[in-house]
Amino acid sequence: MKKTSLIILCLAIFTSFTACKKTQKKKTKKVEGIYKVVDSTASVKWTAYKTTEKLPVSGVFKTVNIKKSVAGQSIQSALNNLEFSIPVSSVFSNNEERDGKLKNLFFGVMQNTSLLTGKIHVAEDSIGTLDIVMNGTTNSIALTFTTQDNTVYFKGTLSLKDWHTNLAMKALNKACFNQHKGKDGISKTWDEVLVEGTIVVSK
Description:
Layout: H1 2-31, E1 36-37, E2 43-50, E3 55-61, E4 65-68, E5 83-87, E6 91-92, H2 96-106, E7 115-122, E8 127-134, E9 137-148, E10 151-159, H3 166-175, E11 192-202
Antiparallel strand pairs: 1-11, 2-3, 2-11, 3-6, 4-5, 5-7, 7-8, 8-9, 9-10, 10-11
Helix pairs in contact: 2-3
């Protein structure tokens, strides 16, 4: 009799433990993947520089297509491994002549660059990297992230020479020689470009 009672007690403990474990698994599943990128909210701004005084020239890409995003357990983790593509035809600087030069004499000189493609990697809440494919070359730049409410702001600086853009830069410099001339009479187009972006992550 005692032996039977002991067996029943052991079975009850085992059943209780198994049920508890299943409940814990269910609870864990509920908190996974609760943040997701709102694809239509993605925007990208760029700032290039001209003259020896390094005067900024800014613009945007009107179209940013999110190719792949995954849900995450935090706002920043929802951006990890996010893939995107940007048609260079969507470049806009509020100057029609400049936009035409960028499309035809800069991006147009590059190899396979009707689209800029890339992938975001988040290392920590405030830092990460951005892979960019341009001119048949893939390179990475460092990113910093800040968050306000459900909007993530990120920025990084790229050096165009890392994408072997010598021919494109020469074509642009020639076309913009006078516009890029400063008070010292020297025409200069900087290799440096600041990239800034925003995207909303929903809960």
